[in-house]
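WARN no homologs supplied; continuing
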Amino acid sequence: MTMEEVREFERATQEATNLKIGTFPPTISISETPLPSCARSGPNSAPSTPLSTEAPEFLSVPKERPRKKSAPETLTLPDPGRRDSLFKLLGERPLKKPRRPSSLAI
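OK structure emitted
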């Protein structure tokens, strides 16, 4: 199908639709509404130029807060080379295999 045939098909389809349901006036109305003073003058994709050199309140530098007492100064990670290092970190003992009673030994 050529582009001309596609255009003709779309035109015929639109005409048949208009005959069947009728045409409707556009429902979008454009009115002049005052823009806020800080509105951008360019398109939404254009970067805006700040009007002042000071950061807005929501971007202010956070206040210095004291560190929580429960937070460790350094984090100790278990040594993957040692099997028992995780248990030492958690303050537990590794599980020992239960011994078989000597009467059941093979």
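Helices lie at 3-21, 85-90.
OK
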